[in-house]
Amino acid sequence: MLRLFKKILTTGIVTESFKTPKDDELEQLGIEIKRHLDKEFSGSIAIREVDAGSCNACELEIHALNNPFYDIERFGIHFVASPRHADVLLVTGPVSRHMQTALLRTYEATPNPKWVVAVGDCAACGGEFGVSYASCGAVSNVIPVDVAIPGCPPTPLALMKGLLGLMKG
Amino acid sequence: MNHAQSDWTVDFLKQLNTTGCEVEQIDIASTALWQIESNHWQQFAELALQQDLRWVAGWAEHIQDRFFINACFEKQGVYVLLRTIVNAAKLDLPSQATVYPAASRSERHTQDMFGINFIGHPDNRRWTRHKAWPKHSYPLHKDFPVQGTPEPITLPDMDYPFIKAHGAGVYEIPVGPVHAGIIEPGHFRFQAVGELILNLEERLGYVHKGIEKIAEGRTPESLARLAGRVSGDATIGHCWAACMAMEQAAGIEIPPRAALIRGILAERERVANHLGDMGAICNDVAFMFAQMQFTRLRELWLRTNAKVFNHRLLMDRIIPGGVVCDLSDSSCALIKQDIVQLRKELSDILPAVDLNSSLEDRLYTAGYLPPETAAAFGTLGYVGRASGQDKDVRRDAPYPPYDQVIFKVPVETQGDVASRFWMRYKEIKVALKLIEQFIAHLASGDILAEWQTPPTGSESLGMVEGWRGEIVTYIRFGADNKIARFYPRDPSILNWPALERLVLDNIVPDFPVCNKSLNGSYSGNDL
């Protein structure tokens, strides 16, 4: 256990914070996101991530939002396990036809008011896969989309900017 | 290929001849191609199993009114591509899945996509097909339009005949396709008693995006982009395998510097994914210290990727003929410095993880995969190597730059979640050494060979060791530099069935950690 505590102590806090910014952009973004969240969402939003056919690259970068560098939860954004708890659906991938009903049902299960963010080039416009016998293409072909975050995959910073864009409406 | 290695093919050909299975040998760019009559298809598999050949991959191709059915086998690093041709009038072929369980899902995929009827298949339920196209319609037939004729809303696949269990206290748990975490979609059907898993059945195919179909007619550059998105976490592995196959078909040799940079990219991808997985395995048993530390190390590693290669996940860094980005001396210095730092960090973290008794309690003996089962399913990569499968393409069928370096392939027989966790750590250590060796070998030179249009009909197999294990990619060119057939065999296709076995007699709450320890790609499986 001592080794464990020693590692925690010597690692310190790497989270790129408000007060001692290591990354100006992240700091600026974080403050702005928090301001909008406080004002319009009573301090927090809950996100349900739905992979509707992605190659898994977007998921990796969405995961990164929870690593100690970005630690997106400190801005009041957290990921939930059920669409019934969610304000926002973060949808990745071209929507595969085999996932179409699952996505529609997830959308229906999310209580109003709700927002949909299409993450990545495939979700935004169909990307490398487009529309075919197996793919519906962009998420907006299946459910209404409020904001699209392009990128293949979008970086964690791009994801945060996109979420800010959603809050600014 | 040295003489001792190729011996088995000579003996095996003799044996096939004496048993009446005539083999026509055809030369293609990379691999031996053996063509046989369709009535010997199953017999070949039986003889191959006797000779300890490993079943590697299976796929088909529609050419005019005939279907080419292919299977790939390997022994001692020598790959053989087996082919038979069946006429469109009678799409019957004896199943090899009766002999090799590894071939089962692959044959079901071929059945759904081509309408080939595998006679005697132990489980001929549909696999890749849900409801996006009708039963007697086959997307990989040349006359099937890429747009298909889909309904406005594709119905859910409600009538798939899952295996049933009955009895007092037996209950079913359906999970997915939308999972609780930030992961890919798939369906798992458990039969349980109390907390104990009696049976698990996987139902995948939810992320089927028609990759094989939309590959047709692409240019080499465009195919490389698509291959890099077969499974986003293995973009280097798939892109490399596809480019290797295309380069062999075109008769192009990539410059040595490009090969070394590809090696560095591949090992960096391995390290990034293993770091992520090691954290995630600990996270699935609620050990947050390790999750935070490993995700921190992964983020640092990805930031170096962005600095040096201009992409965090290294997409589109490999192109036909070479690589996109060169490595400057300062980049090499940064990479080397990173490695030193990572080693130091890991030597702090791993002892703390190792000494944690609660972690030990959850990871040891959980999700045990016996070596015999691993062998029967052809299990690959760290999953296979944790269960005694001593296979690694980098060593067994070395391709540049791995032919210039010496390295160890760690193998264990412990076969549990802990073993798969520590296997990743061992592989990280090997990968770090490899990156250092590749940097030391770097000499100035080109990073891109000039492309030349391959002859119409030329075909080839590309084999690389991706971070999950062996990736095998088949390419055939049509006229005018356009792709006629692309089939990528992700290691997940062979590893997924192992999950159904290794969770048996474990408790349901241990399923997430068992699943993560295997970490199959859904996208790479569903195509």
Question: What are the main properties of this structure?
Answer:
heterodimer; A: 169 residues; alpha/beta; Rossmann fold; 37% helix; B: 527 residues; Beta Polymerase, domain 2; Cytochrome-c3 Hydrogenase, chain B; 3 domains; 17 helices; globular; disordered N terminus
What does this entry look like structurally?
Chain A: Its EC number is 1.-.-.-. Chain A: Its cofactor is [4Fe-4S] cluster. Chain A: Residues 55-164 form the NADH:ubiquinone oxidoreductase-like 20kDa subunit domain. The complex is a heterodimer of chains A (169) and B (527). Helices cover 37% and strands 14% of the residues of chain A. With 169 residues, chain A is of the alpha/beta class. In chain A, strand 4, helix 5 and strand 5 form a beta-alpha-beta unit. In chain A, helix 2 (24-40) packs parallel to helix 6 (156-168). The radius of gyration of chain A is 17 Å and the shape is globular. Chain A starts with a helix and ends with a helix. In chain A, 47% of the residues are buried. Chain B is of the alpha+beta class and 527 residues long. Chain B has three domains: 3-119, NADH:ubiquinone oxidoreductase Nqo5 subunit (Beta Polymerase, domain 2); 170-203, no CATH class; 211-526, Cytochrome-c3 Hydrogenase, chain B. Helix content of chain B is 41%, strand content 18%. In chain B, the strands form five sheets. A five-stranded mixed β-sheet of chain B has the order 1-2-5-4-3, covered by helices on one side. Residues 1-5 of chain B have low confidence and may be disordered. At the A-B interface, helix 1, strand 1, helix 3 and helix 4 of A face helix 4, helix 8, helix 9 and helix 17 of B.
